[in-house]
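Office hours follow-up: a student asked to see two folded examples consecutively, so here they are.
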Amino acid sequence: MKLKVLKQASLPDQLTAELEKRYDVYEYAALSEEAFADLAGQFTVMITNGEAVVTRQLIASLPSLELIAVFGVGYDGVDVAAAADHHVAVSHTPGVLTDDVADLAMGLMLATSRQIVSAQKFIEAGSWHQGGYPWTHKVSGARVGIVGMGRIGQAIAQRCEGFAMHIAYSDSKVIPGLNYTRIEDIASLAAESDFLMICTPGSAKNQALIDGRVLAALGEKGILINISRGSVVDEPALINAIEQGTIAGAGLDVFSREPDVPQALLQRANVVVTPHMASATWSTREAMSRLMLENVLGWASNKRLVTPIPELDA
C-alpha cells in the first residue's frame, strides 16, 4: 500500500509529480472536512513550503504523522514545539539556495542604493530630456552590517569583499574563522553601517528584531536590505522611517503579510521590492526539490533525514 502524504501548501509541479509517482498525495485545500476526518489517521508525512503555517492544532489532528517536510530553508511557520511534543520530525532544504539568496541580496543593495528601478522609470517617463537623474549612493567601499552570519550571511559577506566593503556582523555567537568585526548589539551595528543586511532566521525570538531603535541608529544615510523574513522587521516602524526620512531607503524581498505589501512601501524611488523570490531560479528550485524528495524518501525507507532542522536533529 502506498504511503499517504498530505500536501499542505503549494510546491513546484515537477516535485508534486515526482511525489505522486511514489505516494498517494492529497491536497489539503481540496479536502472537505468530512474527507479530512476520514483520512487524518492515515497520513504519516506532511509536505509544505517555507511560507506556510503549520499549527499545533493541525499537527494534533494527524495522529499518525511522523514527518513534516518543508520546501525551503525557513520553517518559522511550523510549530516546532508542537512537532516535538507529538514526536514528529521536521526537515528543510538548507544550503542549496544560499548562493541565489546572497545574489539577490546584493542585487537589492545595488538597485536600492543606485535607484535602478526608479532610474528606468525616469527614462520611460521622458524625464531625461529635462535633465539628469538625481545623484545616488555609492556601494563600493561602504560599510555593511550583517545581522545573522549563517550560510547566507557569510555568502553575502564574501560578495561584499569583492566590493571592498567594510564588513561587520551581529550574531548570537562568535563565528570561528571569520575576520569580520562582531558587534553584538544590533543598534550599535546599525550605527556603524551604511547598509544593514538582515539574514537572521524568522524565529519567534527574532520577531520585530529590527525596530525603531535600530532604524534610528542606521540613520538618514543608511539603507536596510531584508532577504530573511518579514516578521524580523517591525514593518510599521520601517514605514515610518521611510516616510520620515529616518533612513535613506530599503530593499525588501519579504514582508509581514505576504502577498500583501503595504502601499506606503510602493512607488518610492528609494524602496525596491521583490515578491519573496530570492531562491526562485530554475537550478535552485530543482535542487530544493531533489533535497525535499530525498528527505521524504529517506524517512519512508529507514526513518533517516538528509537535512533535519537543527532543533530536532537527534
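And the second, which I mentioned at the end of office hours:
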Amino acid sequence: MGSTGSAKGSKTTILSIDGGGIRGIIPGTILAFLESKLQELDGPNARIADYSDIVAGTSTGGLITTILAAPFMEGKPMPAKHIPNFYIEHGPKIFPQISRSKFFNSIASSLGKVIGPKYDGKYLRTLRNQLLGDISVKETLTNVVIPTFDIKLLQPVIFSTSDGKENVLKNARLADICISTSAAPTYFPAHYFETKDTGNGGTRSFDLIDGGVAANNPTLVAISHLSKEIVKYSREMLVLSLGTGAAKKHSNYSARRASRWGLFDWIFEDGKTPIIDVYSDASSDLVDFHVSTLFQCSGCKDNYL
C-alpha cells in the first residue's frame, strides 16, 4: 500500500470495511495482523492510516474506520491490535444476550423484540461519546468515508473528511456518525442529531439509520469519492476490501418457506431478520461484482483484493 498524500502519478490506496455487527472482529483481526507487519518494516509507530489514502466503512466497518483514523493517542490513531479486544470486551454489552427463560417469562421483553429495536443502543452511544468526544470528521488523520441513510429524506448521506472540511454543516461529530451508521433497522434505534454553522447561523438536521441499507460494502462509494482525483492525476488504484464473513455458508431460508411469509416473518423469522440479511448481502455482493469487473477491464485485477 502507498502512503497518505502520495505523489502525483503513484497508486491511490483504498481500505474498505463492510458492515456485519459483532463479526467486525474478523476484519479487525486481519487489520491488527497487517499493521503488525507494517510495524516490522517501518517501526512501532506505523499505523494503517499512514498507508491509506482513504478508509471507508459501513456500520461496524464505520466503527473500525474511526478507530483507524481518529487522533486518539498523542495525535495518532489507536493501534489496530486493540480492535479485536474492543469487540471481545464491549461486544457482549453492545449486543446483550437474553436467556431463554427470562425471554419467555417476560411478556414485556417478548413484545419489545417485536415492537421495538432488539437492542436499546445506550451502551454503544455512551461508549462512542466517551471514546470520540467532540472529534469531528474533518479531523481524521486520513480521509474517511462513512455511509448512512436519512429516513426523512429517503436518501443516502455520505460523511467524509473532505466534505467536512468544505461544508461546516457536514462536519459532524464522529461519535454521531458512528452511532448513525450502526443503527441497523430492528436492531438499534435510529439516530437524530443536528449540525450548526455558527458563522452563518445555519443548522442541518439528520434522521439516520445504518448505511448498510444503501452501501453495506462501501468500496464503490470510496472509489467514486476519489474518482476526480484519480482521473486528474492518472493514478492507479490499490484496493483492499474486507468483509465480515458469514454466520453460515448457506442460510436456512428457502423459496418454499418464504412463499408463506408475511410482513412479520420477513422481519422476524426463527430469531433472524431475513429482510435485513437479504439487503445487506445483496448490497455487498453487487458492489464486489462491479468493482471486480472494473479492475479486470482495466487490466489490473491484482490491484483489487
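Two things to take away from it. Residues 1-9, 103-111 have pLDDT under 50 and may be disordered. The CA atoms of residues 261 and 269 lie 9 Å apart.
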